[in-house]
User: Fold these one by one.
Assistant:
Number 1:
Amino acid sequence: MDLATLAGMGLGVGMILFSILGTGVSMTNYVDVGSLAMVLGGSLAALTVGSPLSRLMKIGSYFKIVLNVNNFEVEKIITTLVRFSEKARRDGLLALEDDLEEVEDEFMKKGIQFVVDGTDPEIISTMLYADLNQQQERHADGIKLFDDWGSLSPAFGMIGTLVGLIGMLANLDDPDSIGSGMALALITTMYGSIFANLFFIPIRNKLQDRDKEETLVKEILIEGILSIQSGDNPRILESKLVAFLPPEKREAVLAEINAE
């Protein structure tokens, strides 16, 4: 569970409520079901118009991705690839078939199986990168969905504001309705800004981070698998793969590899 995401959203809502309470105005003045329906309902309706239904049906799964923390164990992956490289250089590529059962990552298992089967390097590269591209396209769907939602929410907030202003102008002969009409118009804008900037845009950013993390893992695997197939020296492979990591993690990985 990604507690930082929940904590950030909770803190944002808390600060907004704290600011509202600081005005000395009753909380009920900031609650309007019609404005909420305009922002959420209207923006969701616009998403339905502009997005395939299959993508909208995955909204729940996108929230799940954001709330879950993936532990890819990149250090372990690099260590495993270097170990496979050493074994392949020592005993031949066919010897790797004995280790396939212990490989949990399906992408790695498929790539190593290609190597064991003697598949042409260009075909291996094409097939693995095709998988990576498909993954990125799937991720791009979710990113685009929340990017659109983050743009539409303020827009429908403005539409709600215009609706409130029209209603206010239609009742200028009733001074008591001007204040309430103006408040209603501004509440809708506030709702649109809150949902866009506290929820939808941050969720889009978090999905982009998840995509980068998984893409990095796949790129490390592809580089490692192709290097094993081409018979690179394990030390060369080690240097290639460690270069994908940030400097602060490199020493730990090298220490783990050298300890084996």
Note: Residues 175-230 form the longest helix (56 residues).
Number 2:
Amino acid sequence: MIDRLISKIESLESPIVVGLDPMLEYVPEHILEQSYQEKGETLEGAAEAIWQYNKGIIDATYDLIPAVKPQVAMYEQFGIEGLKVFKQTVDYAKEKGLIVIGDIKRGDIGSTSAAYATGHLGKVTIAGKTYRGFDEDFITVNPYLGSDGILPFIKVCQEESKGLFILVKTSNPSSNEFQDQLIERKPLYELVGKKVAEWGERHMGASYSQIGAVVGATYPEIGKTLRSLMPKTYFLVPGYGAQGGKAEDLVHYFNKDGLGAIVNSSRGIIAAYKQKGYETFGSKNYADASRQAVINMKEDIKNALGSL
């Protein structure tokens, strides 16, 4: 799966993943009104609005980007109806040729990890028939229970030719409370990064491992260090745009081949119509605003990477 992701990044010249992290306040009023009319002012109506909103963004951007990253919590907040839309979004994105990174950040041990992996990446057999759950291509996982929590995920990835992005250094301000703590004079995120690279050797693609790392855009010097420690690890980079990460900060997240990282933007794209510089699109043309935001982000990163 990592080889397919890299192929799409190269063909589109677009190391960008759109984070489909919808909140009701992002959804234009005309979509909300229609959904509530059809399904009621209920969880089902809210979920329908999220689905129509997502569909519009996917339709407007799928030819520009290699992947989308739906964050499952934004769907879980609407209960079962929201999870139905999560699955609907995954399936529709794949129909459009997009790779789907399920941002689920699961982390447990033994049979529980295996069950999470099966539900999101694998399959179950019932009465001789095979069924798939959410069926993403990659998922994000939390490594802080150690190998007991990661190896069951890798096993399913090997069986299904899919991949992971493991949290190493996250973009949030308080990540330093644990991730930066020194152990034998090394910050914890370096030790985790080395372990991710070790796990990655178990499940390689042609040039990069199927086991990637989440490394936030808001700490560029740390990103540079981790890049040198993890040369065969693909980075999923959150924090661009709305969280303060800039394209010029991302240069060292990439290798000299111009590969090695895919940069996420969520509300900077999906809620672009609400942001400065995109006001003229208006809420009716929210998807067109999202498309323009992708085009602008693509150009921004391309210019920054010109120095490689």
Note: The two ends are 26 Å apart (CA to CA).
Number 3:
Amino acid sequence: MASKAPACPQCGTQIAAGLLCCPGCGGLVHADELKRLAKSARLAGDAQRPREALTLWREALEFLPPGSRQHAQIGERIAELSDRVDQQPASATDTNAPAASASSAPRFGWKKGLAGAGALGLLFWKFKFVLTFLLTKGKLLILGLTKGSTFFSMILSLGVYWTAFGWKFALGLVISIYIHEMGHVAALRRFGIKATAPMFIPGLGAIVRLKQYPATPREDARVGLAGPIWGLAAAVGAYLVALATGWPSWAAIARVGAWINLFNLLPFWQLDGGRGFRALARKQRWAAAGVIAIAFILTSEGLLILLLIAALAKALSKSAPADSDRTAFWQYVLLVIALSFLSLIEVPGLAGA
């Protein structure tokens, strides 16, 4: 026997599942929950806890009909809090530990050695990317593995890649993909956006499905570019291990990981680069295209041609925002530079590495 639809506490009209407003009187179905969330969010804001307030306001937004005045007001509040959170230093850049030197082991040289070292040095200086980057995020990385969907889909992908490339390379590749996805998770948590745990898809990588969506192009850019930023850290870590040990498998992991993250920087559709590019003003898009062209001249990495074509198309489009996002711009161009040179790491071969 089907259960009876709940009645509106104000007018008694039966309310179908999923409705946010009463069809009879127009009252909010979840008014009590909205009051509770709004009170908690205001208290968090007064206590200078913008991340907590942001999470609560996002939850409240789910109980309001899109297009309503209340929905617009809370949306503006979310955008304001998001700006405050973005101005706070991310925990991923809290470490001041010195970067490890890559000049001591010559076994895996760059095709463009001097330029590559300069690009990596610039990136270390800008983002403070060192091995302690991963160490400071160890708790989050371990927490992600406690999710059954993540762990078991990771094991499945590991088996597929193991069959094709051997267990050493397969394990490093899966870990590299996992770190990339957890970069998205970290950014989503920072902005209070609900999402699923990473789900691996053998042969295609992994995905994180959003349950809520970024409020602004700037926020979307932070979430999108966080994956390649963490992926770059993983590739740099693998390369440093290769330099220290001389093991070809680590060099292969670093090179393939860098190439995968560079591919994700394509400014197209829902790829990470597309999400980053949507926050760039037209002049910044042209400048990013110029950086991509220079990177191609220096490295001859063929993938950069695709990035350049897509970047030029975006620069010519009419959808560019008027306001510039300097953080997204510098993150994007420095990622392009560093990943382009990392993708040129010379390794004996990938099969059976």
Note: Residues 31-87 form one domain.
